[in-house]
Amino acid sequence: MSEFVVHSVPGSPFGRSVLATLEEKGAPYRLAALAPGDSKSSTHLERHPFGRVPALSHDGFVLYETQAILRYLDRVLPEPPLTPDDVRQAAQMDQVMNISDWYLFQGVCNVIIFQRIVGPQFFGTSTDEAAIARAMPQARTVIAELSRLLGEQPFMAGGQLSLADLQAGPQASFLSLTPEWAELTFGRPNLVAWIERLEARPSFTSTTMAELMVRAQAA
Length: 219
Known about the structure:
- The protein has ten helices and four strands, in the order E-H-E-H-E-E-H-H-H-H-H-H-H-H.
- It is of the alpha+beta class.
């Protein structure tokens, strides 16, 4: 099978979703690493007119938007399947993927993670505690709902890993690196165990920012 090329910034949770999916599929791929800010370059804007990551190149086909990429990979690489056969489980998978995009990232991760990690480490900005405080009510709602939907299942759509875990997991994992995670998950051990379960998978251990940088230097 021809190689998949993932254009992304190492450490991006969206990019990690795609890379982890390719790892789960056992597919050949290459990370075309972008530096922070490169997503606005003219070259990348030809792939992704909205200047975000990731974008996927495969046999002359270019695709952007993480959900679209994950669904494409699950169709073109049918084994192992990452969409449940059960229609209700598949619907919950879709629901969690949308929660991840619209409520976990927008208004929570893009605020708290930026203020705690990305801004200070990569752009030298100071943490805006007021911005974090404003994001916390939504964060509490999102985390409570993800915990409720997970319940006693090992994964978000049932007993098997699905695209829901691969979409939401990297976002939640990144959020778990912030001090707010302890408060948000207090009394929700199922969600903490879910993250630990995902991070123990080879697809996640091989797509950490540190691992990607080591592989890039060795290439």
